[in-house]
Design a protein that fits this description.
The structure is a homodimer. Chain A is mainly α. Chain A contains 19 helices and no strands.
Chain lengths: 690, 690
């Protein structure tokens, strides 16, 4: 008999095949003049160099962790009667890391090819260039969905054990954390250094080929935004599916999350196929229409499936609640960052009174912006909870209620294929613009790429809010999964805020996201300092470079190298910290302390993720608003102040902010994985305190 | 028979009498040259103008709230059989506001007198000037302790009901919130505007008499730092005593917090009396020695009293745990802000690469700095909890455990008289320096006032950390008091993080401190913009002002007026928000949602309070480090960057950051006051959802 959950691997294969088709479509396009090919090639080389180094280091890290997992989990191998489980878990972990790495690699490969091709097509008009940019992004989106869902399906088909799938999820998340933090440090190192020396000190334009950091900057857009963002959403996506599988296990509903995820993949596939733009069309609108269409398709498909397969419709309702919340959160983030809205404009106006007021104003609006999404996530949880609570009977009310919260997270993330496609479109056309400028394609072509780029920014505002909202619901589902796992291990505790151990855990937990942010941001600062010295040195020592003499070229590779080595050096301690402190809190304080710790980290993690993403985005747009001619335009004092604000915002929005989602996800997964072990062995219990 | 708790009012009277004695001592000192008297008089006038306006508006606000309290609390007056209780509560509330205002007024009055006198005494040497500065601060410290403790004692003596004392505490806290937020907006409006136009645009020194904002700036130090800080600590102090009284009520221990507070007042009195400095002495060391001595005296006195009165020694232990935690937290804050330590120095070094890196680096170290205090507060709670848990028998274990946590908060705050004295010393000598500069007392005298000022900064680092730590433990005690009150109202709930209502409450709660911070910081920005225009206008329109022509004086009063009106306009919405949202969450979501809300607001409130206080402090010291000659010294590019960092840090450390303590205190008090009413009437319950 056909098992319903097989819809997941089938959709996954369909996504991968479509991705392959689009990949070949991109490859067939013309890459333009030799100059353009050369630039594109340099970006591709730099990106590959980064990934090669990163993956080499990560392979060692993954092997070490896999060995530890194999020895200790689910039970220490010397006490276990089923050592095969240990080996399965370790393998699932490695497989998860591998799938995540593969999706990142493919997405970046196509992105670094598509940039020059999109720039070249821009010579023939917007409607020729747009599909290349979007399909390039779609390859990433479809790879993320395909590899994630196929991986989960394979592990589940072999083991039929959601707890082993949890290992797969941990592998994917651990890799995502490195990709996000490493890529984020890389991209901002390059960006800040290029801007500070180029734009601020020397007054040459962005993406000017004389700037030694320009290739590193373009590479950064790819390793940070494409590979990193893809890994981030893949990580939330997998984690939400696994969390719901664990929550559904006791209720005999392991197949429901897989069915919903499979249908979501199909909806995204159809959504991607419909995105088009005419000669005079509006690419930003096209992207958003695609997103809304995907949402509607998902709602219809899952309704029909629920009806046909006899799932309780309230579970479907919970998934829709999540999806709706995601869209609303996305729209509110858009308000706080959009160039047309008061927050960015008032920040631009404040720049007239100096840099300090630009920073204070932008930061303050960033603080405001946390309210709607936090309330949105909270309300979505409450509705999903109470909607599904009555499904349960005979004491299963709470289980169904939490299952409903998980379904909301899943619903929000089900359309991830379309979200990643829109998002990855952004850096591709941003790079296309860079290639067009560096190879002197002329004002008209640059204007087309500008339009493409602006659409990318619009889409990005919504998808970023979406990603954080999704992560919020996912970690709540993971917290529930942790609680369930602990209960199954015989520790039925309440995470009571009046319990001092829970409180102590929470106090430590809320400090971790800020400390992590500090580590990666200082990493950017340290790295940027090294790179600034190098850029200044090149301008000083290479004769004719500053003046733009024919034939004189800076040493791009040196800057790429500095950014790469530095990023890898800075990311390891921060990421390791997250895992080690989580284990420390668990093995010292026990299940309750760890529960408080997770809750605390979720609170401050979401808070800072939203603050940093939105403040960064609005500083960026305040600057763009002035550059568009307002308040004195480029070169004015207000503009100088706004440039500093934008630079401060860069590590906020592209390094620390987006890594925090992944961070709290990894922490929650570690907690769930080790819950059984911690329930048995923890210091306070061994000392007889609790 | 002598009731032991009477030690509280007796100590309060002793404090007030000593304060009066010191007040007269200050008044007898010489105010120096006519020029100095004139400046001091202008500051005093400005400060009084601010307070008059502020108190006028607040009087209306207090009357409105008192009326509402009288109608609705403890029970709606039409349902109550004891309407006298409603009247008592309303009166206690007004009395609390009155006492807090009085302490603020006296403190500020003496501070604005002591500045010129200290400057004048500085002409005869450090050991003549120091006592005037310190005793000026001591008047504030002793008033805070005296009025607070006397007020509590009076209310308790009349009503014998800790819940009415809660009303007194709410009055004091509501006023503190206004004083802190209003004063904070005022002081930073003046400071930022004076710096931006004076130092940055025109390059004239700080405190230059040509700057039209110079008097407003000096006034700001008094209304923000003296009156505001005093109100802040008074508020935590009263709240901690009341929380422990409520927690102790069921255990028959209402007198213990009063005895401990009374002995703390005596210890502080003795500590204040011993602070001295010799001709070549180190004033910073003298202040810290006084603090440590007070701690030791408190430990000894309370040990003897516990032994004599037969209190369980574990309660004494809990108080000491809190006190120790306070000192440790103070010392770690010192590390993160001190001019001699890596965080400030590295931030200064980063300034060499531009403003953006100064901001990113300082902010990152600020993020780091939250870890030790949060862990410290958490550990102190756990120790106090488990220390006192075994005192309880017959199901009272939990009550004693929470009582222990309250005792820790009380222990930390018991020496508040000494803390406020050290802290208020800072702005007095800061002003003395300003007076010395403006009246041209010569290099040598200014060097003496510089030394006095530096000591103030050292003391301030410790007392600020102390204040935040104390607030942290106090709000935990208040959360426990809220829980106890709800339980007594018949709603015995668990604040379980897996409960979606608690979670929704928490998500809203964590958003409130950021939103409040945004409101007051944007208030500063808006206000500063108005004032910058005015300063520029005066320099433009008053002939000879810029050149410093003899006899030409700027219009100081106009700047004072702008700062005053603006601050009052900006503070009302932010402060009202805190109260209204708290009531909204309670009356819609009920006891559980409100519990989660309080926990959430405590988490993010402490987080941002620490981040903002410490980041602001270290930006300030990074600038001072460069001004002392490092990295190119004054006028270098690094210095310019550091000045911007300092300006960003100003509203962080002096407006938003310190208001957050008070904010979460007010929110917790509102919750406790309304707990009984909310337990009966809330929307979700009325609709039958819970």
């Amino acid at each position: 008999m056909f098992e319903t959950w097989l819809i997941a691997p089938i959709s996954a294969l369909a996504s991968l095949l479509t991705g392959l088709y689009l990949y070949r479509y991109i490859n067939k396009q013309d890459s333009g003049t030799p100059k353009m090919q050369e630039i594109s090639h340099a970006i591709k080389e730099g990106a590959n160099a980064f990934l090669r180094r990163e993956y080499t280091i990560l392979a060692i890290f993954v092997l070490v962790v896999a060995t530890l997992l194999g020895i200790f989990l689910p039970k220490p191998i010397w006490t276990s009667e089923t050592p095969l489980q240990n080996i399965s878990l370790a393998l699932a972990y490695m497989f998860g890391a591998f799938c995540s790495a593969l999706a990142g690699y493919f997405g970046m490969d196509v992105a670094t090819r598509a940039n020059a091709k999109a720039a070249n097509a821009a010579r023939e008009g917007l409607n020729k260039a747009f599909p290349i940019g979007f399909r390039g992004g779609a390859v990433m989106g479809l790879s993320v969905v395909g590899f994630s869902l196929l991986g989960i399906s394979i592990v589940y088909a072999i083991t039929r054990d959601p707890n082993i799938v949890l290992g797969f999820s941990f592998g994917a998340s651990a890799l995502a954390l490195f990709a996000k933090a490493g890529g984020g440090i890389y991209t901002k190192t390059a960006d800040i250094s290029a801007d500070l020396v180029g734009k601020v000190e020397l007054g040459i334009p962005e993406d000017d080929p004389r700037n030694p950091a320009v290739i590193a900057d373009n590479v950064g857009d790819n390793v940070g935004d494409v590979a990193g963002m893809g890994a981030d959403l893949a990580d939330s996506y997998i984690a939400s599916i696994v969390a719901v599988m664990i929550l559904g296990q006791a209720l005999g509903h392991v197949e429901i999350p897989l069915v919903f995820a499979g249908l979501g993949a199909i909806a995204a596939l159809m959504g991607v196929a419909t995105v088009r733009v005419g000669e005079k069309g509006n690419p930003g609108k096209a992207l958003n229409t695609g997103t809304y269409l995907t949402c509607i398709l998902f709602a219809v498909l899952t309704y029909l499936a629920s009806w046909y397969l006899g799932f309780d419709l309230r579970l479907w309702g919970a998934a829709l609640v999540g999806l709706t919340a995601g869209v609303i959160i996305g729209i509110t983030s858009d308000y706080f960052t959009s160039i047309d809205r008061p927050p960015a404009r008032k920040t631009a106006e404040a720049s007239q009174s100096g840099t300090a007021l630009n920073i204070i104003t932008g930061f303050s609006y960033g603080l405001y912006s946390v309210l709607p999404p936090l309330v949105g996530i909270g309300i979505a949880s409450v509705i999903a909870y109470y909607l599904c609570y009555p499904i349960g009977v005979n004491g299963h009310e709470l289980d169904y209620a939490l299952f409903g919260v998980g379904m909301a997270a899943l619903g929000m993330l089900s359309i991830v294929g379309m979200i990643v496609a829109s998002d990855a479109y952004g850096p591709i056309v941003d790079n296309a613009k860079g290639v067009a400028e560096q190879s002197g394609l002329g004002e008209e072509v640059i204007a087309v790429t500008d339009k493409l780029d602006a659409a990318g920014n619009t889409a990005k505002a919504i998808t970023k809010g979406f990603a954080i909202g999704a992560a919020g619901l996912t970690v709540i589902a993971l917290l529930a999964a942790y609680h369930t796992t602990a209960r199954e291990a015989g520790v039925n505790v309440v995470f009571d805020m009046m319990d001092p151990l829970v409180l102590l855990g929470a106090f430590i937990g809320i400090a971790i996201p800020p400390v992590f942010s500090a580590m990666v941001m200082l990493g950017v600062g340290k790295n940027a300092n090294r790179m600034i010295e190098e850029i200044r040195r090149q301008f000083r020592e290479i004769p004719g470079l500053k003046e733009g003499k024919e034939g004189v070229k800076p040493d791009y590779a040196k800057c790429v190298d500095i950014a790469t080595v530095g990023a890898l050096k800075e990311l390891l301690p921060a990421s390791t910290l997250a895992i080690v402190v989580t284990l420390l809190v668990g093995f010292v304080g026990g299940i309750k302390a760890l529960g408080g710790y997770l809750a605390g980290s979720i609170f401050s993690g979401l808070l800072f993720a939203l603050l940093m993403a939105n403040a960064g985005g609005l500083w960026d747009n305040a600057k763009k608003y002035i550059e568009a001619g307002a308040l004195g335009g480029k070169g004015s004092e207000a503009h100088k102040a706004a440039v500093v604000g934008d630079t401060v915002g860069d590590p906020f929005k592209d390094t620390a902010g987006p890594s925090l989602n992944t961070l709290i996800c990894v922490m929650s997964l570690v907690a769930s994985l080790f819950a059984t072990l911690i329930a048995q062995y923890n210091l306070l219990q061994l000392l007889g305190f609790v």
